[in-house]
């Protein structure tokens, strides 16, 4: 079963409410998280998120929104989470890593390299205290276009894939989880490859402020825009089994949680 959680709430001025969309996948081998939002240490020590981030994003920081609290509310324990797959290591995606010490943390190799050795604008976007004690497994795709025309790398069997889609950050990826309840079904966490459902319409209808924010946050904006265009083509091609959503759009999240 694939559950959709909100593991952080934000209220940036001009933009309106944003969420941190997280997947909790119940597999026979253990629980899998895709992204983690904020963790209990972020909530308890919010100063560590930095003044600039807090002033811009205005996070709510509620203990009950952490992945740990939601996993426990379902009757599980922290150690039942065996694997975490991260779209990237930005602080609003990796904060929950520290709450699951038993988990293997899967990340694209270029992203871990960027987080450990930031260059230029990468300084400040990563928060090593969130993940420095994690047990990482790094992944790298080596060519081919085996997943709907995109390069991909298997993370856990054939059911969990990383689809590298750089631009927002150096090693940003989509994470695709096979949906056992749908023929050719995949639920695709697109991380920050786009910010608003209107980024993927033709023509794009995302609010202008969000288009500006995406450009300012991009590690490589030329690559980001090209990859967002590829994703738009994929969404507009008719693949009924594909459900694609981004990390921060509350309307996309509600489409799953209100169902
Ligand atoms: Zn983000």
UniProtKB/TrEMBL annotation:
Similarity comment: family membership: Belongs to the metallo-beta-lactamase superfamily.
InterPro entries, sorted: MBL_superfamily_lactonases, Metallo-B-lactamas, RibonucZ/Hydroxyglut_hydro
The entry's keywords: Hydrolase, Metal-binding, Zinc
Domain Metallo-beta-lactamase: start-end pairs: 19-248
Name of this protein: MBL fold metallo-hydrolase
PANTHER family in the cross-refs: BLR3078 PROTEIN, QUORUM-QUENCHING LACTONASE YTNP-RELATED-RELATED
């Amino acid at each position: 079963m694939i559950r959709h959680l909100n593991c952080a709430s934000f209220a940036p001025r001009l933009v309106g409410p944003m969420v941190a969309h997280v997947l909790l996948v119940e597999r026979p081998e253990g629980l899998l998280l895709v992204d983690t939002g904020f963790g209990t240490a972020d909530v308890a020590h919010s100063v560590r998120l930095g003044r600039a981030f807090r002033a811009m994003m205005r996070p709510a920081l509620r203990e009950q929104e952490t992945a740990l609290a939601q996993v426990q509310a379902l009757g599980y324990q922290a150690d039942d989470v065996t694997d975490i797959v991260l779209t990237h290591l930005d602080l609003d995606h990796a904060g929950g890593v520290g709450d699951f010490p038993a988990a293997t943390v899967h990340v694209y190799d270029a992203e871990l390299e960027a987080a450990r050795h930031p260059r230029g604008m990468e300084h400040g976007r990563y928060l090593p205290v969130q993940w420095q004690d994690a047990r990482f497994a790094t992944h790298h795709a080596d060519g081919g276009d085996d997943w709907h025309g995109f390069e991909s790398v298997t993370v856990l069997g054939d059911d969990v894939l990383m689809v590298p889609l750089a631009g927002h950050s150096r090693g940003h990826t989509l994470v695709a989880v096979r949906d056992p309840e749908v023929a050719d079904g995949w639920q695709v966490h697109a991380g920050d490859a786009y910010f608003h459902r209107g980024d993927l319409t033709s023509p794009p209808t995302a609010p202008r402020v969000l288009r500006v924010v995406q450009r300012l946050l991009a590690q490589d904006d030329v690559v980001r825009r090209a990859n967002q265009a590829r994703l738009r083509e994929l969404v507009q091609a008719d693949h009924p089994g594909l459900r694609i959503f981004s990390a921060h759009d509350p309307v996309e999240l509600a489409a799953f949680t209100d169902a």
